[in-house]
Specification:
Layout: E1 3-6, E2 9-11, E3 17-23, E4 32-38, E5 45-51, E6 56-58, E7 66-71, E8 76-81, E9 90-98, E10 101-104, E11 108-112
Parallel strand pairs: 2-11
Antiparallel strand pairs: 1-3, 3-8, 4-5, 4-9, 5-6, 7-8, 9-10, 9-11
Amino acid sequence: VQLVESGGGLVQPGGSLRLSCVASGSISSMYAMGWYRQAPGKLRELVATITSTGMTNYASSVKGRFTISRDNAKNTVYLQMTYLKPEDTAVYYCKATRAANIDWGQGTQVTVSS
């Protein structure tokens, strides 16, 4: 499945953004969808995941500020980000996992700066 992220941009500290990830095919059969991020000079890290049944998991650094959700009818996964901090600056990637198959999007840049 092909994944296309959107919604990134420049935002001031304390601001909000909503990222979207649209899949080219049905995601209702996917075991899990997730958002990951990679800052310059750092490894890619998990931000949040959501299973096909809606169970969610968050990195401790974003818990309480970010919310992952999915709309299977629209083949879309969202990441609502609030109270953004400069350390949230990174390229955010969408990931789809079904059994042994893993697909990644191309990423969308999020920059948090005043």
